[in-house]
Here is the input.
Amino acid sequence: MERFGENNDGGYVMCADNLDKGLVGAYSYGINGFDGWGMAIAARYKLPLNEYDCTNANQPKVCQGCEVHFHDECILDNASPVKAKFKTLTEQLKESGNANAAERSLLLKIDVEGAEWDVFAKEPTANMQKFRQIVVEYHWLNKESEHPRYLAAVQKIEQAGFAVAHLHGNNYGGGDVAFGEFKIPNVLEVTYTQKPAQGCAANVPYHVALDMPNNANVQEVDDAVLPSTL
Here is the structure.
């Protein structure tokens, strides 16, 4: 495990195994004027970085020697009507030259305030399989009426061959939400890696030293307390 990006909000814990070969690009959604994750990935692995944010046109300072393309756009799921400054992942992959990228040759970070659920649920599985790792910020788990939609999203991720490698509760999200005997942060950051052929590892730690509160001035929420079957 390694942390990429800021020490607090904007930093993500990832699995660094096998990231040093075969990658051709990285995609960072939801910039808000800073992108430590994207710059760290671009600098370390010498990858072209595509950044997307239609809500904040402030472009982050580009790391030395990095190839960075900022787009004043947001991501749209494949089933929604066309609207200004929004494009689907399919369109953005094509425009950035990765429509025919090989499987597991891209990296993805996505923090888009709830739009992630429909993007994942409605994007073709083949596009999701282009990514080797995905870090996503899942929003508003307290909205139980939306859980069928959320389920469709995570099932699509699983169909694309991913498994959860790390969970982190975002303490900007309003604390934990209880579901019977279990509780989970209302906003949860998830790191997905390719599911190993031999199955997932046992005894994966709940807490790692690399985890840091998104808001350093507020007590951190629990990373997660989940059924062992998830």
Summary: The chain has one domain: 2-194. The two ends are 20 Å apart (CA to CA). Residues 224-230 have pLDDT under 50 and may be disordered. DSSP finds five helices and 13 strands in the chain.
